[in-house]
Amino acid sequence: MSKFHDIGAPPGTLFYNGEQTDEKIKITLIEFNETEYIEETFYDLTECLSHVKPNMVKWINVEGVHDTAMIEKMGKFYNLHPLTMEDVVHIDQRPKFEDYDDYVLTIMKMITYENEVNAEQLSLVLLKGTVISFQEPQGGDAFDIIRNRLRQNKGRVRKLKADYLFYALMDAVVDWYFTAIEKIGDKLELIEERIIADPTKESLVNLYNLKREVIYLRKQVWPLRDMINNLIRTENDLITDNTQIFLRDLQDHTARIIDTVETYRDLLGGIMDIHISTNANKMNEVMKVLTIMSTIFIPVTFIAGVYGMNFDNMPELRTQNGYYITWGVMLTIMLGLVYYFKKKKWL
């Protein structure tokens, strides 16, 4: 299956480019106000929509976007633009913000880190009194803290409007970025210690894999900052002035994440240079030893070569103790060269 698009299809065609599954889409409907809270789970969209109550803030969380027919049906029910629904089911989107007349859309990646970076696409739609979240069924999300606040009526979320819930969901996702980069930082320190102590091929592979993860995280965070900036600048009445204050705080969190990711990127480059320099130094040490050994044995080899020639008239061959004298000369030269190299601190 193509990762990018159903080639030749008109704009607004719903094309799911993820892993196909027969699993049913799970829909969680949460409705609340300051005094009431209702939470229900459905596997049928029609049944879910029939339970929607007026005069309450609604959060509809859709786990799974592979059933394009159901996603299209939900889009038509809430009068969402076909291009919006196309973005929802196309799970390789960059983080972005779209402002429509009667709703706003944000798309971002929900990042987790368990030995490696894992990401799932999250699409949030804010309508009047309603938030719809579309996510992939990855066996967990960042929203448990929001659900607990809603159930226990803690914090502001039950007291404010849907736009604050919209912000709170994004804030929970961004908090998971902090958790991920903290784990990456711990892994980076461990790899750095191993490379400095004893650089191996395995440590180089680990370093390369970590660098790829940081680059991927960087590709997600930079457009996330632009998305939040656009959300702050929007004049859509769905975003109240009260929520704008919290969005600016979210903007600050994103800036901190970017700074940390850039720092890690620079550190990884430095560690890579250290690894290359260490290996180069080791190779230089080997070459130095081989060169010194060659230098020591060159004059000895020359003497042995001279007296190994088959000439009849070589007076030294008949010299008494000539064999021992030759050995003495060769050893003297060798020891003299060793002394010279040590004096020059080459040994």
What does this entry look like structurally?
By secondary structure, the protein is an alpha+beta fold. The protein has two domains: 26-277, CorA soluble domain-like (Beta Polymerase, domain 2, 2-Layer Sandwich), CATH 3.30.460; 282-344, Methane Monooxygenase Hydroxylase, Chain G, domain 1 (Up-down Bundle), CATH 1.20.58.340. Helices cover 55% and strands 15% of the residues. The protein contains eight helices and seven strands. The chain has helices spanning 45-50, 68-77, 82-89, 144-152, 162-197, 201-233, 241-306, 322-343; strands spanning 26-32, 37-42, 57-63, 96-99, 104-113, 117-127, 130-135. It has a seven-stranded mixed sheet with strand order 2-1-3-7-6-5-4, with helices on both faces. It is rod-shaped and about 120 Å long. The model has no long low-confidence stretch (mean pLDDT 85).
The gist of it:
This protein is an alpha+beta fold.
Any key phrases for this structure?
alpha+beta; seven-stranded mixed β-sheet; 347 residues; Beta Polymerase, domain 2; 55% helix
The total beta strand count reads: 7
Beta-strand residue fraction: 5-15%
Q: Which of globular, elongated, flat, extended, rod-shaped describes the shape?
A: rod-shaped
Determine the N-to-C terminus distance: 62 Å
CATH topology of the largest domain: Beta Polymerase, domain 2
